[in-house]
């Protein structure tokens, strides 16, 4: 999923329009509609629609984090390989630090990784310290 706009620290976070503006509002509307229908027409069939609506919402909220976790694992692997290529060793970083480090250009990635590992930087501190931002245009 590639964007044409240049990615920066200020605009690197993104929403997935199909998920955030279509699926979730649609499921919320469906839940409200089924609850109203159930309250007006008590019975097992309307109750089952309420259950189905709740299950669909739980499913939507659980499936997306699974995909994001897989992306996080791939990012961590890519960054570990990049740092190994750049400096021959891999600092001990947390998963969140690896994910934040992906925005650093090669020229500053090694220094930032060492400082983040040594000083226990949080992802926000890593992102704030990046001087040459490298966009991640494939993140969903």
Task: Explain the overall architecture.
- By secondary structure, the chain is mainly alpha-helical.
- The chain contains 5 helices and no strands.
- Helix 1 (about 15-40) packs antiparallel against helix 2 and helix 2 (about 45-85) crosses helix 3.
- The chain starts with 16 loop residues before the first helix and ends in an 11-residue tail after the last helix.
- The mean pLDDT is about 90.
How is the secondary structure organized here?
Elements: H1 17-40, H2 44-87, H3 95-101, H4 106-119, H5 123-129
Helix pairs in contact: 1-2, 2-3, 2-4, 3-5
Number of strands: 0
Net shape? elongated
Report mean pLDDT, rounded to a whole number: 90
The number of helical elements comes to 5
Helix content: 55-70%
Sequence stretches where pLDDT stays below 50 over 5 or more residues: none
Task: Give the number of domains.
Answer: 1
Indicate the proportion of strand residues.
Answer: under 5%
Strand count, sense and barrel status of the largest sheet are: none
């Amino acid at each position: 999923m590639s964007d044409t706009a240049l990615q920066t620290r200020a605009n690197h976070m993104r929403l997935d329009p199909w998920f955030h503006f279509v699926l979730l509002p649609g499921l919320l509307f469906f839940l409200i509609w089924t609850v109203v229908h159930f309250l007006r027409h008590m019975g097992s069939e309307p109750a089952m629609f309420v259950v189905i609506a709740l299950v669909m919402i739980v499913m939507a909220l659980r499936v997306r984090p699974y995909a994001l976790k897989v992306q996080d694992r791939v990012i961590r692997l890519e960054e570990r390989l990049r740092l190994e290529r750049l400096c021959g060793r891999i600092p001990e970083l947390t998963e969140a630090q690896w994910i934040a480090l992906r925005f650093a250009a090669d020229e500053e990635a090694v220094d930032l990784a060492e400082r983040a590992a040594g000083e226990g930087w949080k992802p926000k501190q890593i992102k704030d310290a990046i001087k040459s931002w490298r966009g991640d245009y494939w993140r969903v």
